[in-house]
Amino acid sequence: MNKNTIRQAVNVLAVIATIVVNGLANALPLNNLTTGDISDRFDVYFVPAGYVFSIWGLIYIALIAFAVYQALPAQRENPRLKRIGYLFAASCLANITWLFLWHYEQFPLTLVAMLALLGLLIAIYLRIGSGGQEDVSTAERWMLHIPFSIYLGWITVATVANVTSLLDYLQWGGWGISEEVWMIIMLVVAGGVASAVTLTRRDVAYMLVILWAFVGIAVKHAAVPVVATTTWIVTVLLALVLIGSIVLERRRKPQAG
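Structure (tokenized):
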């Protein structure tokens, strides 16, 4: 068994472990608390409505697709898959670690695990050239690039939510700035990051995940006009950025041809 075959096997096992632990975390549940039970403790705005978290089902399907694709004998020498190395397995470990830390209420450490997960996914994203930076087959687009675009998009949102929850846990005063104003600042920052990724990488999947989350935030906090209205405005602006990036990409391709 050569090193590439070992890497393929490790990635398959990593996906299985991640899905099993995530399932058991809520089925058992770990520490007699579901992930949502803990999340509901924090009085923060940057958390979407419950239905939005159903995206994990899509993420799991995408990761299974990636695991199957990268495990094919024909993909053993794929240079983009080789660039990932064991970063994906490390990201799965970070995901699992975060779950245990969250369920056992080690909230400061959850941010460390979340930042590790985010950093690893960014590294993978850049190494495989996601977001239209390289010409790849349709199969590779759907089984490699899109899974990590979706995953990174969600973890981008989850990282901001993790920060806000931790600050609430630490009873941070916000330097005298109201929670609503901080929410607007976070929306603008997150929207700016999403716009930069979309415009530079032409990554539709990544932006769609951000839009999904932002709509969920607006829905959950509909009773707080300043938060809901601002979120809807940012969401519309991001949708326009997405449309613009699609138009620019279509104009670029004929010229490249």
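Residues 3-256 form one domain. The mean pLDDT is 93.
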